[in-house]
From TrEMBL:
PROSITE patterns on file: GST_CTER, GST_NTER
Top-level taxonomic group: Bacteria
Pfam family, one: GST_C_2
Protein name (Swiss-Prot/TrEMBL): Glutathione S-transferase family protein
Positions of the GST C-terminal domain: 85-204
PANTHER family attached to this UniProt entry: DISULFIDE-BOND OXIDOREDUCTASE YFCG, GLUTATHIONE S-TRANSFERASE-RELATED
SUPFAM superfamilies: GST C-terminal domain-like (SSF47616), Thioredoxin-like (SSF52833)
Residue ranges annotated for the GST N-terminal domain, each copy included: 1-80
Length: 204
């Protein structure tokens, strides 16, 4: 089994942090910006989207980082990271899907303009920052309710994917709202295996 994608990608780090929680030695090959292009035919045969990462497990390939995280947890039988009980699992997956859809879409314009240098109007950037802060405040409210992790007492895949997203928000050159529950949660996450290398490493 191996993962294709550069470590500077937040979605690659998401998968690698999942592997660290599972004590899984997951070999990785560099693909993406600065390395081999995911537009090469060899890569497109694995993922027609031409995006990273891709997991290769024998003759099985899988793309979409959140799906890869689910697969690794399920294959390892890690029922704390990904519960077997339908309602508990649905709650974890709800927050994972929210991360990939709602939260990511809120920061896209601001992050790509302020960090990646893509063109955008000041008005569009300001609207994106406001939306980003509003979504992060939703996460803060959820963490204030649980007092521990995203869906309750246990550390799950929801904490992994949202922990990476939160680190991006904390590192971005924007004006942030004060979110005490998020700050306390990130402090708790900092003791997890792989956090320093894959989350708290200053990468955007």
């Amino acid at each position: 089994m191996k993962l294709l994608g550069r470590l500077t990608s937040i979605n690659v780090r998401k998968v690698m942090w999942t592997a660290a929680q599972l004590s899984l030695d997951l070999p990785r090959e560099d693909w993406g910006a600065g390395f081999r292009s995911p537009q090469e035919p060899e890569y497109l045969a694995l993922n027609p989207n031409g995006m990273i990462p891709v997991l290769v497990d024998g003759d099985f390939t899988l793309w979409e980082s959140n799906s890869i995280c689910r697969y690794l947890a399920a294959k390892a039988g890690a029922k704390t990271l990904l519960p077997a009980q339908p309602q508990a699992r649905a709650r974890v997956e709800q927050w994972m899907d929210w991360q990939a859809g709602e939260l990511n879409n809120s920061w896209r314009v601001a992050f790509m303009a302020l960090v990646r240098g893509q063109p955008a109007t000041p008005e569009a950037i300001a609207a994106s920052v406001a939306g980003w802060n509003r979504h992060m405040a939703m996460l803060d409210a959820q963490l204030a309710r649980t007092g521990a992790h995203v869906v309750g007492d246990d550390f799950t895949l929801a904490d992994i994917v949202l922990g990476l997203s939160t680190q991006r928000w904390m590192n971005a050159p924007i004006e942030r709202v004060e979110l005490p529950a998020v700050a306390a949660w990130m402090q708790r996450l900092s003791s997890r295996p792989g956090f320093a290398e894959l989350v708290g490493n200053g990468m955007p």
